[in-house]
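Hello forum,

I keep getting stuck at the same step: I have a sequence, I want structure tokens, and every attempt I make locally crashes halfway through. Rather than fight my setup again tonight, could one of you with a working pipeline run this one for me? It's a single chain of 175 residues.
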Amino acid sequence: RWLSTLSQAGLGGILADEMGLGKTVQMLAFLQGQYRESVSEPALVICPASLVYNWIEECSRFTPDIPAVVLAGNLSQRKKEIRKIGTERGGWLYITSYDLLKRDIAFYEGMTFSTIVLDEAQFIKNRKTAVSKAVRVLKGSHRFALTGTPVENRLSELWSIFDFLMPGYLGSITS
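Reply #2:
Ran it on my machine without issues. Output:
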């Protein structure tokens, strides 16, 4: 309900909690609601490579009716799957890793997602990295970040995550 309220208000949000307390399941519940409401644009989850197949497993367990697709493999395979995004031949929920998104960002040009989810959002805490710049290029109506890792007492790290969630809301990093 909280995630839905945020999205209806046009805000992004962070689910920050200890590992194993259900952040993935909570996000899947939100995505299930979006899917059942026939939201036409697909959703995208970006996570560490070690969690990509965990996400697909959790999808099959908790939201089996959502067509979920892993964007992995070699460049040719990824390009083929990315081209299907938003078409009847594709899925609705796409899952990729931060590293592959960074490499493939040009293929996402012109696409709009209903929801973009960053799992382990500390991956973008440094606004100057290629990964952080890549996620900001993506277009999405709703943006959420999941993290079990606390911010390390630097406002710039929190600013970087919020700048992804709600671009421009906190002003520039220097203001």
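The helical segments are 2-8, 23-36, 52-62, 75-84, 98-104, 130-137, 155-165. If your local run keeps crashing, start a new thread with the error log.
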